[in-house]
Amino acid sequence: MEQRMLVGVTVDNAVAVLRIANPPVNALSAALRSAIADAVQQAAADSGIRAIVLAASGRTFVAGADISEFGKPPVSPTLPEVVELLDACPKPLVAAINGAALGGGLELAMACHERVATSGAKLGLPEVKLGLLPGAGGTQRLPRLAGAATAVAMVVSGEPVTAEDALRHGIVDEAVEGDPVPAALRRALALADGLAAPTRVRDRGDRLGPREAFEAAAARALQRVPGNPAAAACTDSIRAAFELPFDAAVRAERDRFLVLVKDDRSKALRHVFFAERAVAHVPGLPKGTRGREVARAAVIGAGTMGGGIAMCFANAGIPVTLIETEQQALERGLQRIAGNYATSVQRGSLAAEERNRRLGRIEGRIGLEHAAGADLVVEAVFEDLALKQQIFGTLDSIAKPGAVLATNTSYLDVDAIAGATRRPEAVLGMHFFSPANVMKLLEVVRGAGTAPGTLATAIELGRRLGKVPVVVGVCHGFVGNRMLARRTAQAERLLLEGASPQAVDAALVAFGFRMGPFAMADLAGLDIGWRIRKATGKTAPVADALCEAGRLGQKTGKGYYDYGGGGRQGAPDPAVQALIEAASARLGIARRSIDADEITERLIFPMIDEGARILEEGIAARPGDIDVVWLHGYNWPAWRGGPMFHGEQLGAARIAQRLEQHAAHSGDASLHPSAALSRLAREGQGFSSLSEAAA
Ligand code: 3H9
Predict the structure, then answer these.
(1) Is residue 341 assigned to a domain?
(2) Predicted local distance difference test score (pLDDT) of residue 532
(3) Mind listing the pLDDT tens digit for each residue in 487-531?
(4) With a 6 A CB cut-off, is 233 part of the ligand 1 pocket?
(5) Of 694, 670, 692, 674, which is closest to residue 682 (Cα–Cα)?
(6) Would you state the pLDDT for residue 306?
(7) 326 is catalytic
(8) Is the pLDDT of residue 207 over 60?
């Protein structure tokens, strides 16, 4: 019964049209695979049917294998079995592709004799992004349609091509406007009328192209993703098209797939896939809540952050007023924006006309009254609660009724800011990450009084700006910076106990980050943290001493490293070592040699511990939300899934035990595991149990 619903069958002119219907994206679940196999076999056996069209209803053809089934025991018919069945179909078979044919979806289509795609449809094999390779013949059929050089570029990048490009590459036989089924029907009948049996893709070895062209393309593609085992497996598998008979190459592909699917990296990337989608489901936000249309925005404060946020609006086609209190500050801000765009034009990533259009959307003004016409205002001034409250008090009296008032504060109390207005329902935090026009994370901070419509506006707008909005609750530093503070404190403490800045940085790079905390601090500038510490009465002996010595990072040529040689690569500096040793002596901390494992654990485990507390307090809705924050705001390596995924893999018990050991060994009491983590460790529970309890 269910199977008939998953594939609808109609007959048109003796052609069976099989329509896949498994919303939302027709992923190839076990039930759907079985339904497709049955429908194809029945049509093949029906003497009244001359040919078959494989189509799909809904917004897309087929988005590939059902990713949620990976890691579970295989259920027959497997996808390779269904693909084989199509490949062996004795009647002409034409795929009609609308929306997207990705992964297993394209593999199904390539097992047909011909393919028709709707103009604008996307076709690709994105498995590498999940740490996999196409496992249902994709690495053998794509090179036989598009040539091995084009195939290796597509498979290693995982990027799809449009129907038009697919036509040019020979992946599809026809691109049409609108519904692809009529053209597919026509082609199916023509094949049925032909004298000879239609050619199967497996027999198109003539299209592989020269091996040298493939090797050159493979080397180029791999250069962009060094050390990625899935990318290397994709390349090796495509190479087999030159070396092995088709069936043997497909078997080898399958073997490689089965190895990769068990790899922790692929598990992490699959977790990321679902976590990124889960953040869109916000607990407590009634389904169907619509946000306000943002036709015009205002940004208050033309500093680096405010300017970057204004660029986000302009880039998304939204006119924005950038507001300052003084002409000079405004001009500096506008010049910085123009400079950023000029760099993009110089690099060739932005056309000059588009730059002009974007600049034309940014209007600089003096005075808050210019925020009156905005549907949404983002305040991005200095981190001073009194100043922000004053601004929100004024905004309250001038902003349009219904306008959303957002603060970009990175750690202040959003409720205290909302309290300065008579419309707390319209207030929330929109915490962008630096550089705001580049980083994809947007922490949307829901205040105690934030109305659902206000929240929905910020989320929808965030997506329109190309961001990944993650809803978080009010606390000091929200999710990302609150966890970062634990790591920063340990990085500083490790220096005092005997580690060098380069050893700490190297440990984090070996873990998978692009940069360590000290190289990062030098890049961002040490004075930001210094200012915040002063404002909050905190100290960091090494960082403070560097700032007092005028070593503010790359911008002053010196920070944790010496940039005297020019460029961005700093050299270790004996003066820094002396300064650290003096700080250790002053504080009476005995120095010792610290190995890389201890460094890594002391940087990462306290973050996971903080994540547990964040979940227990309900500041983040799910462990995956925290992971998405770290992936898109702090460049956490995707193949490690995020801090909470990493913590889950290691287990709360091991993390709690190691933290206890480090606390005892180092004498740093902040390393003791929190009550939340200790409870998980004791009860053998996972991190999601904390969020379930908080909900
Ligand atoms: C593969 O095919 C392996 C084979 O080679 C070999 C096997 C042996 N599975 O993204 P959206 C869900 S590997 C399960 O928000 P959009 C998604 O979680 C696969 N679920 O929509 C979400 O659920 P919810 C290779 C899937 O319009 C809902 O569908 N294929 C899958 O922005 C809507 O998704 C890929 O990697 C799936 N395959 O984008 C393509 N796909 O509503 C993966 C989606 O509960 N998919 N879901 O949050 C995509 O890239 C996008 O979903 C697509 C639509 C572009 C299709």
Answers:
(1) yes
(2) 83
(3) 999 999 999 999 999 999 999 999 999 999 999 999 989 998 898
(4) no
(5) 674
(6) 97
(7) no
(8) yes
- Name the residue with the closest Cα to ligand 1, atom 40: 63
Backbone angles phi, psi at 322, to 5 degrees: -100, 120
CA of 102 to the centre of ligand 1 (A): 9
- The C-alpha atoms of residue 67 and residue 28 are separated, in whole angstroms, by 9
Terminal C-alpha separation, the chain: 37
pLDDT of 303 above 50: yes
Residue 361's alpha-carbon distances to 306, 355, 532, in angstroms, are 15, 10, 33
The model's pLDDT over 435-482, given as tens digits with 9 standing for 90+, comes to 999 999 999 999 999 999 999 999 999 999 999 999 999 999 999 999
Average confidence (pLDDT) over 162-174: 98
Q: Give percent of the chain with pLDDT exceeding 90.
A: 94
Rounded to 5 degrees, what angle do the CA atoms 578, 583, 584 make?
100
How many C-beta atoms surround the C-beta of residue 371 within 10 A?
27
pTM over 0.90: yes
Residues 126 and 42 in one domain: yes
Instruction: Determine whether the shortest distance from the Cβ of 104 to ligand 1 is under 6 A.
Output: yes
Residue 25, domain extent: 2-262
Nearest protein Cα to ligand 1, atom 19: 64
Q: Which atom of ligand 1 is nearest to the CA of 102?
A: 30
60 within ligand 1 shell (Cβ under 6 A): yes
Reported ipTM:
0.99
401's tokens: 């009724």
d(C-alpha 264, C-alpha 262), whole Å: 6
On the question of pLDDT at 428 being above 80, the answer is: yes
Atom index in ligand 1 nearest the CA of residue 138 equals 5
Q: Whose CA is nearest to atom 28 of ligand 1?
A: 24
Helices (DSSP H) in 27-78: which residue ranges? 30-45
**Contacts for 271 with CB less than 8 Å, ≥ 6 apart:** 624, 627, 641, 642, 645
> Which residue from 55, 25, 47, 7 is spatially nearest to 183, judged by alpha carbons?
55
Cα distance between residue 81 and residue 34, in whole Å: 10
pLDDT computed for residue 226 by the predictor: 83
Q: Is 137 touching ligand 1 by the criterion CB < 6 Å?
A: no
Structure tokens at 260: 């990769």
Q: Are 203 and 110 within one domain?
A: yes
pLDDT in tens, 638-652: 999 999 999 999 999
Quick one: which of 137, 179, 9 has its CA closest to 20? 9
134 CB within 6 A, ligand 1: yes
Ligand 1 atom with the smallest distance to the CA of 59 is: 27
Three-state DSSP state, 146: helix
Q: Is the CB of 238 under 6 A from ligand 1?
A: no
Give residue 227's pLDDT. Answer: 83
- Residue with CA nearest ligand 1 atom 25: 103
67 lines ligand 1 (CB under 6 A): yes
| CATH code for the domain in which residue 216 is found | 3.90.226.10
Greater model confidence, 112 or 529: 112
Task: Identify whether 604 is part of a domain.
Answer: no
Tell me, using a 6 A CB cutoff, whether residue 135 lines ligand 1: yes
Q: Per the structure, how many domains does the chain have?
A: 3
User: What's 518's domain CATH number?
Assistant: 1.10.1040.10
The identity of residue 614, as a single letter, is I
Among 29, 59, 62, 67, residue to substitute to test ligand 1 (most atoms within 8 Å of Cβ): 67
In whole numbers, what is the pLDDT of the chain averaged over residues? 96
Nearest CA, atom 7, ligand 1: 135
Catalytic residue among 84, 114, 127, 379: 127
Tell me the CA–centroid distance for residue 274 and ligand 1, in Å. Answer: 9
C-beta separation of 493 from 599 below 8 A: no
Any ligand 1 atom below 6 A from CB of 65: yes
CA distance 513 to 507: 9
Residues 462 and 510 in one domain: no
Annotation marks residue 617 as catalytic: no
Is 254 part of a structural domain of the chain?
Answer: yes
Tell me: do 314 and 399 sit in the same domain. Answer: yes
